[in-house]
Write a structure and sequence with these properties.
Helices cover 39% and strands 19% of the residues. With 664 residues, it is α/β, with parallel strands linked by helices. The chain is flat. Bound molecules: adenosine-5'-diphosphate (ADP) and magnesium ion.
Length: 664
């Protein structure tokens, strides 16, 4: 049915709307205010100032002509116990609408001398929020009238968003959305309306992206097989119970394995939230049927994972191997041989696992730890070794790029928000270089209780340009300071793999009280007895890295401490770390600081050109919509359900849009 504007609205108004490409009542309703003006009601005071007051007209309306065809209206207005005169210029069109006893809200300047308000805003009693539409030839009140007509005339039978999601997020109906945005009574109305439009846009967008990817690019695979009873048995042997979020992540992984196309999932969990055990369960479940690989960015971390898995699987016939650049010659050749013959179930290693001559027989699932440390190419190389593998990535530092990927590509997210119980918040302080002497005292306290301390320094060599402390210098200094009291170790990237391993092992076994290190300790290392982290020249690091470094401590139930030392003038930026210890929040800070320009080229196909959404500010909505879109695709399918008709129609429009762009 068409609802052409000229059939319902006056000639002058219709003409102006048509000029602005608004041809029917529905598009009129979808023409939203450019902004709102807010008037907060006050009690009338006889101060000379702008006032917004409510009251009633208590006289006839008088119209006067002035020079140059200007007309004014005036009347007496009772507000509270006061009666004031109101005059308004150029608003004679209101004449028909005003009458004695009418309740109004008025905004204007009070002139004490003449006891007179010069009103610039006169409106119904209720709405002291005024939508501004900015048509050049139409007054806002005319637009409002036309909108009122449209809202009364049109029928709103079919929602785009499925009922269950409207309920889930308490979103208003279409009718109510238009009412909220065009005739808001409160700020809450405006927010409600916007929430609906944003979510709707996000859901349609996510459906389109994921439907497109799924139908075009996904290979069909056989669902992976696993034995639930055995898995439950294994989980019971773990030294701790899983947290709720860990359980959820595990369940999500196993749902993924059931799917008939390869799935990529990012497990996002703060440092120390226990991501490793989640993938260990997956490894356990799949090991005897398929091959899997775990890649980590540093040798230390890869070895640690190898050790963890070996311990967990000690009682099971699971074949694990370790590969890094330090594994060479015959040993390496033997591993590669076993790999291609499927005599290895799980390969754990560093970048060494993506070397060209590393080949699997039946690689079906890939885990990449600290995924932010790997480039797109490296991930792809590993994926190409697989047989339409599932890909599981782990990260505590979701960098904007991977955050964007979770929104714009078919990457799913499992969030581990809670940390294992009993963990105490790490006490964090930002110190300037003059406050460091207190640190030695604090180190002594911790060491005296048998605890251990990390000291992180930015670079290992004296650089002429950078005034950076030298790791060796620092190491020597602390060695002197603590002679006869505790041993000090030094760890940096220039050490050979076996040297690194020696130092880390010595620290892990508590043979060293203090470990001076570059950021090679940044990722993953899990040494429970360490309770204190000191980061020198902290200003040289980003917030996410600093947070990640802090995560080296607090892996136990003890009170832990973290000190960021920096030049006085640079402390301010770091202060946020004293309060915020949530990686998601911190990465949002990063995202906000860098802005969306990071993700979208100027002409990125259709992405980022949202009508209502802001990629950065509304990131959460896009995330939710993504989960919902995948749910709709997975469980409802798009073809069967009549209730998804409108959604499918809108989605198709978006797909047509970006495939159109693809061709160019
Ligand atoms: P991350 O998420 O940073 O990779 P890890 O997987 O290294 O964290 O886990 C941190 C520490 O917490 C490990 O020592 C691990 O054994 C322990 N841990 C993991 N899950 C739990 C749990 N549910 N209860 C207690 N400790 C746990
Ligand atoms: Mg980890």
């Amino acid at each position: 049915m068409d609802y052409k504007v000229e059939r319902y609205l006056g000639e002058k108004v219709s003409k102006e709307l048509i000029k602005n490409h608004i041809f029917d009542l529905f598009s009129l309703l979808n023409y939203f205010p450019k902004r709102y003006e807010f008037f907060t009601l006050k009690e009338f005071t006889d101060n000379k100032e702008t006032q917004t007051i409510k009251g009633v007209i208590v006289s006839d309306i008088v119209i006067r002509k002035h020079q140059r065809n200007l007309k004014s209206i005036s009347f007496k207005f009772k507000t509270g116990e006061h009666i004031v005169s109101v005059v308004s210029f150029g608003r004679d069109y209101l004449l028909d609408k005003l009458y004695p006893e009418l309740a109004l809200v008025i905004n204007g300047n009070y002139d004490k001398k003449v006891f007179n308000i010069n009103a610039i805003f006169i409106n119904d009693y209720k709405d002291h929020i005024k939508p501004i539409y900015n048509f050049s030839e139409l007054y806002d009140y005319q637009v409002t009238q036309a909108l009122r007509k449209a809202l009364r005339t049109l029928e709103f039978k079919e929602e785009t968003i499925p009922e269950s999601y409207l309920k889930k997020y308490k979103l208003p109906s279409d009718y109510e959305t238009f009412r909220c945005l065009h005739f808001p009574e409160t700020v809450l109305d405006i927010n409600q309306g916007k929430r609906k439009l944003k979510y709707q846009e996000a859901l349609i967008f996510q459906l389109a992206v994921n439907y497109h990817i799924r139908t075009k690019f996904k290979a069909k695979i056989k669902p992976l097989a696993y034995d639930l009873t055995k898995i439950r048995g294994f989980i019971e042997t773990l030294p701790f119970g899983l947290t709720e979020d860990q359980k959820k992540a595990v369940n999500q992984l196993f749902l993924d394995f059931k799917s008939d196309y390869p799935i990529e999932r990012l497990i996002e969990g703060d440092v120390g939230s226990g991501k490793t055990v989640v993938v260990a369960i997956a490894f356990f479940a799949l090991a005897k049927n398929y091959q899997g690989v775990l890649m980590a960015p540093t040798e230390i971390l890869a070895r640690q994972h190898y050790q963890t898995l070996s311990n967990l699987f000690a009682d099971y016939p699971i074949q694990l191997e370790f590969l890094s650049s330090s594994v060479t010659g015959k040993k390496r050749a033997a591993i590669l041989e076993k790999l291609i013959n499927k005599e290895v179930d799980i390969l754990v290693g560093t970048h060494a696992v993506i070397q060209p001559d590393v080949a699997f027989k039946d690689l079906r699932y890939i885990v990449i730890d600290e995924e932010q440390r790997f480039g797109v190419e490296q991930k792809k190389t590993l994926k190409d070794k697989g047989n339409n593998s599932h890909l599981i990535t782990l990260s505590a530092t979701p960098i904007p790029k991977s955050l964007a990927a979770t929104i714009l590509q078919d990457v799913r997210i499992a969030k581990i928000k809670t940390k294992p119980a009993l963990r105490k918040k790490i006490i964090t302080r930002v110190l300037n270089d003059r406050e460091v002497s207190g640190l030695i005292q604090k180190m002594n306290e911790e060491l005296n209780q048998g605890r251990q301390v990390y000291i992180v320094v930015p670079l290992i060599e004296e650089s002429e340009n950078l005034d950076v402390k030298n790791a060796l210098d620092i190491y020597n200094k602390f060695k002197d300071l603590f002679t006869g009291f505790t041993e000090v170790g030094l760890l940096h990237g220039k050490l050979s793999a076996s040297e690194k391993n020696q130092v880390t092992t010595a620290f892990a076994e508590n043979k060293l009280g203090i470990l001076v290190s570059t950021t090679v300790v940044e990722v993953g290392i899990d040494i429970k007895n360490a309770t204190m982290m000191v980061v020198l020249d902290a200003n040289r690091f980003g917030l996410s890295t600093l947070h990640q470094l802090r995560g080296r401590v607090g892996r136990n139930d003890l009170q832990c401490f973290c000190y960021y030392v920096s030049k006085k003038e640079e402390c301010e930026r770091l202060k946020v770390l004293e309060e915020v210890d949530d990686c998601f929040l911190l990465s949002e800070y990063d995202l906000k600081a860098r802005g969306p320009g990071q993700f979208f080229g100027t002409k990125q196909t259709g992405f980022g050109n949202f009508l209502f959404l802001d990629f950065v500010a509304d990131f959460k909505i896009l995330e939710l919509a993504k989960t919902d879109a995948l749910e709709i695709l997975d469980f409802y399918g798009l073809n069967q359900s009549e209730s998804l008709r409108k959604l499918k129609f809108e989605m198709q429009k978006v797909i047509t849009n970006f495939t159109k762009d693809d061709i160019i």
